[in-house]
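ok so I'm stuck.
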Amino acid sequence: MVYVILREEIANGKLKKLTLLLGDKEQLNNFIYEELNRFYKEGGSFSKRKETEDRLYEVWELRKSTGEIIELRFYVFGNEDIDVIEIVS
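replied:
not stuck anymore, here's the structure
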């Protein structure tokens, strides 16, 4: 099964970065791990938060050493039958 993950990076209430990844479950988990590991190596800390939205996979609150707080939201699509994945740029 192919999964689609949508990653939103939000800082100061504004969307800073949007990433779309297609892959299997292992690739998606590795992507999330690499994102958190990169942030940790830069001196930040993080905590996992829970959300109740249907498609929300994970939410992480990241704190930079400068005090800035960034929220990473990961949405996953792939648990239901999807006929078409359309990417428009």
